[in-house]
Design brief:
The protein has 476 residues and is α+β, with helices and mostly antiparallel strands. The chain is 32% helix and 26% strand. It has one domain (3-404, 446-475): tRNA-splicing ligase RtcB (Alpha-Beta Complex). Helix 4 (116-126) packs antiparallel against helix 10, helix 7 packs antiparallel against helix 9 (238-255) and helix 9 runs antiparallel to helix 10 (276-310). The two termini are 36 Å apart.
């Protein structure tokens, strides 16, 4: 698949028309520059997704799209259960409900400056990070079942945060339809000591400064101003989510033939939504979403405690929490009719526009906050959902910069200590249990996040509201 085979529909929209087994076109949102730099494997994977049963309208790729497991990361696809639609574990990803949560501190850069190092050290001590990291919470069987069923609501009921936090969390902090019994004992065992931990890879807790506000009206509604300090948390469902993904992918490969599904790629394993494996996966995945929501809620509580010790004047109010590895049953308009569809967003963020009934009152006129993470040394962004993105991408936007090279390639190019020192020279403090992990996540291993966000903004997927820069980062 070459660029020459792409049809450019407008400045930021590209199309691959259906051929062979494709049931719908592929739509890619990107600038010329991003298209040129996009791994051609993305096109191949998006074409494979377009060949799955029950897919509706198009197989979409966001501006940060890059090669993933089965589905491209940055891929969006919706399936109609009335037309033999499928659910795919690869279309959700292994880190179920990985997402970003942003907290408003009520502080500015000057207020933080003198206490920054002490605060970062306290956060690094308080919030476990790294591969296989464990915390101080130990869940017995009863608490595990409650957590998987109730999500952040469970965490709040156990004293981790306050009830008003739930208003600012996707699904109000609890994903309905979770089936803890569909989660294996192995998955639950992996999670018993991992609640309230960041994990490894691209996960982080970052202190950031708002350096630019593009839309003052929406910024005021969100409570953000230039010079404000915020805290962003990026993590997911840890070992439990990975185990769910691993186990159900195997089940889907085994049962695909029984349902007459021909897989263009084994990694694209899926099951009919209305099948035993499909229903069990959805129930387990929803439990994984609740695990991630509870995890970020606990980390929020730990971060608040650190601020209380070092900077007690900070408030740490929750702006929003939104995931980017999910499959959600949502209502969307297709050919003029509202339909209930199962929308996969893998490395893509939900971006509901103004007036959407699922948004809290605070965002009814602005649209949902869309939280786009950076990579230690680069900007992060806050955007808002648009009405236009409903028709363009099932109300979806990008989730970050997207990798431009593999982790192995990154470690060949950078040394962790050098990355830490270089960022320190720029005034960014880094704390991590693994220098190799820092090298793997070097800012240079990612695409230009500003180019990605600008493409999403200009394509109408979401509207730019503010740009943030890192002051300090706890890296997994």
């Amino acid at each position: 698949m070459s660029r020459e085979q792409l049809i450019q529909r407008d400045e930021y929209q590209w199309e691959i028309q259906p051929t062979g087994p494709m049931r719908v076109p592929v739509i890619i949102y990107a600038s010329d520059e991003l298209i040129d730099g996009m791994d051609r494997k993305v096109f191949e994977q998006a074409i494979n997704v377009a060949s799955l049963p029950g897919i509706v309208k198009a197989s979409y790729a966001m501006p940060d799209a890059h090669w993933g497991y089965g589905f491209p990361i940055g891929g969006v696809a919706a399936f109609d259960p009335e037309r033999e639609g499928v659910v795919s574990a690869g279309g959700v990803g292994f880190d179920i409900s990985c997402g970003v949560r942003t907290l408003l501190t009520g502080l500015n850069r000057e207020q933080l400056k003198s206490a920054r190092k002490e605060l970062v050290d306290d956060l690094f001590y308080s919030v476990p990070a790294g591969l296989g990291s464990t915390g101080n919470i130990r869940l017995n069987d009863r608490e595990m079942e409650s957590m998987l069923r109730e999500g952040a609501r469970w965490a709040v009921s156990r004293g981790f945060g306050v009830a008003k936090d739930l208003e600012r969390i996707e699904e109000q902090g609890c994903m309905a339809g979770a089936l803890p019994k569909a989660v294996s004992q192995r998955a639950k065992q992996r999670q018993r000591e991992e609640m309230g931990t960041l994990g490894s890879g691209n996960h982080y807790l970052e202190i950031q400064e708002v350096v630019e506000v593009y839309d003052q009206d929406i910024g005021n509604q969100y409570g953000i101003r230039s010079g404000d300090v915020v805290v962003s948390i990026h993590c997911g469902s840890r070992g439990l989510g990975h185990q769910i993904g691993t186990e159900y992918l195997k089940k889907m490969v085994i049962t695909a033939g029984q349902h007459g599904i021909r897989l263009p790629d084994r990694e694209l394993a899926c099951a009919p939504i209305r099948s035993l494996v499909g229903e069990n996966y959805l129930g387990a995945m929803r439990a994984g979403i609740n695990c991630a929501l509870a995890n970020r809620q606990i980390i929020t509580h730990l971060a608040r405690q650190s601020f209380e010790r070092i900077l007690p004047q900070a408030e740490l109010k929750l702006l929003y929490d939104v995931s980017h590895n999910t499959c959600k049953q949502e209502e969307h308009r297709v050919d003029g009719k509202l339909q209930r569809l199962f929308v996969h967003r893998k490395g893509a963020t939900r971006a509901f526009g103004p007036g959407h009934p699922d948004l809290p009152d605070a965002f009814k006129t602005t649209g949902q906050p869309v939280l786009i993470g950076g990579s230690m040394g680069t900007s992060s962004y806050i955007l808002s959902g648009t009405e236009e993105s409903e028709t363009r991408s099932f109300s979806s936007a990008c989730h970050g910069a997207g990798r431009s090279m593999s982790r192995r390639a990154a470690t060949r190019q950078w040394q962790g200590r050098q990355v830490v020192d270089d960022l320190m020279a720029r005034g960014i403090l880094i704390r991590s249990p693994s220098l190799r992990g820092v090298a793997e996540e070097a800012p240079g291993a990612y695409k230009d996040v500003s180019a990605v966000v600008n493409a999403a903004h200009r394509a109408g997927l979401a509207r730019k509201v503010a740009r943030l820069v890192p002051m300090a980062c706890i890296k997994g």
